Amino acid sequence: MKTKLKLTAGLVLLTICPALQAQNPVVQTSYTPDPAPFVYRDTVFLFTDHDEDDAQYFKMKDWQLYSTTDMVNWTYRGTPMSTATFQWAKQGDNAWAAQAVERNGKWYWYICAEDTTKHLHGIGVGVADSPTGPYTDPLKRPLIPGDWGYIDPSVFIDDDGQAYLFWGNNGLWYARLNEDMISLGSEVIKVNTEDTDAFGPLVMKHDYQLNKRIPKTNYEEGPWVFKRNGLYYLVYAAGGVPEHMAYSTSKNINGPWKYQGRIMNEAENSFTIHGGSIEFKGRNFMFYHNGLLPNGGGFRRSTAIEEFTFGENGEIPFIPFTKEGVRTPTANLNPYQRVEAETMAFGYGLKTDRLPGNNHYLTSIHNGDWLRLRAVDFKNGEANHVVASLPKVRASGTIEFYVDNLGGKPIAILPVAPTDKKQQEWQADIQKKVTGIHDLYLLFRGGDDELFDFDWWQFK
After folding, report:
1. CA 59 to CA 50: how far, in whole Å?
2. Using one digit for the tens of pLDDT, what is the confidence trace for 284-338?
3. What is the per-residue pLDDT across 433-454, written as a single tens digit (0 to 9) for each?
4. Which phi-psi region, left, alpha or beta, contains residue 281 (left: φ > 0; alpha: ψ -120 to 50)?
5. How remote is the C-alpha of 416 from its chain's centroid?
6. Which residues contact 158 (CB under 8 A, 6 or more apart)?
7. 24 three-class SS
8. DSSP string for residues in 78-127
9. Are the beta carbons of 229 and 284 closer than 8 angstroms?
C-alpha cells in the first residue's frame, strides 16, 4: 500500500516517529471498510470488507476477519469468504458491507453482493462452525433477492431469542429471522424514513436515478441495531454524501423510532462512514471507517475505533475522531506464549496473506519495515532467548526487537538466511533483561529485495 524504501537506521526513525503513538486506523496491512465487531466470550472478532489496493471505485472481492483480546493488538484471522462462496453472486467484485453473529455454536455471516439474476445487490448468508470458517452458502441463492437499495445487512438477536435482519440504502427494511437464521420469519417490512421525528430533518441530496438534488431522508444507509437497558438503538450513516453518523432509539423493535442526533462527523478522507458499537469488558467502543491510511480515500477505507461513555439516560454522546484511538488496553499481551506475527497495534510496509483457514503469516517484508505491539507484559524478565518461525526466507536479514521505541540498542537481534527447509525456526539470545509492561517493536533489516514471510515469535 506504499512504495518500499531502503531505509537507514536514521531514516527509519525520522519516517516513523510521527506514527509511533497512532492507533487509528487499527489495521494497516489491508484496507478494511465497513467494520462489524462481535464480542464472543473474551474475544472481539472484527468482520470487515476489503477494498483492493488499486480500487478506483468499490472494488471488493472478499471479506476479512481480525480479532483481539485487548482492543489494541489485532490479529489477522484470514480471508474466510469471497464472492466465490456464493454461486448467485457476481464473481470477483461487489463484496459489500456485512455483519456476523454466533448462535448455538454456528456462525452466520450476512453479506451483500450483486445478485446476478436481478443485477442488483441482494443479501446472502454464509454459515460456519467457527468464525474463521470454512463458510458455505446453505441456500445456494440470496436470502433476500436483489432490489434497489438492498445493501448493508445488520443482524440482531433480541433478549427473547427472536432474531432480526435490518438493511437498506436510501430506505430501511427489516424482517424477522427464523431460529435457523437462514430463512425469514416474516414479510419484509419497510420503515418510513421520511418520518422526521424518527430520522431527523430532510436534507437536499443527489438522487442518482433522477440525476438531480431533491429533499430526501436524513437516513442514508449502514444500519447497526443493538439493545441496551431495554432501549433499542439504530445507528446509521446519515445526511447524504458525505455521510456523518447519527442514531435513533425506540422502546420497541418495530418502532416508532425517535431521532437522537449526530454522533460522528463526516469521516476523514472518505465520503462514506459505516460502523457500529460494542460493549467489551465493561467499556464501550464505536467502530467506523475513514480514508487515512497511505493512498487511502473514498474507495480505500480503513477501520478506526473510539471509546465512549453512554450518558445517564442512555444517550450516545458526540464522539470526536482521534489518531490515538483506544488509549488504554483491556488486557496485556503475554510474550511467553506463541504470538502470531500478524498480530500488531501498528505496522509499516507489511502485508498479510489472503488465505482462508487458521494458518496465516506476514509477507511483503522489506528492509525498514516494522511493527509495534502495545502493553506487552514481560513480568519478571524470565526469558533468555527469542524464537521466530518463518515459512519462507527469500533473502538474508534480521529481526530486531526493541522495547518502548526504535531508538537505542535492540534487546535481541535474530539473523535469518535462506535454507532448503519449508518451515524454519530461528533463535537468538536476549541481550538485555526486560521486566514489566512495555511496548515492543520488531524492525526488519536486509537488502533491497523482499526478505521473508513471518509466521510467529515467542520469548522463552
Report:
1. 8
2. 999 999 999 999 999 999 999 999 999 999 999 999 999 999 999 999 999 999 9
3. 999 999 999 999 999 999 999 9
4. left
5. 32
6. 164, 227, 253
7. coil
8. ---EEGGG-TTBPTTS--EEEEEEEETTEEEEEEEEEETTTTEEEEEEEE
9. no
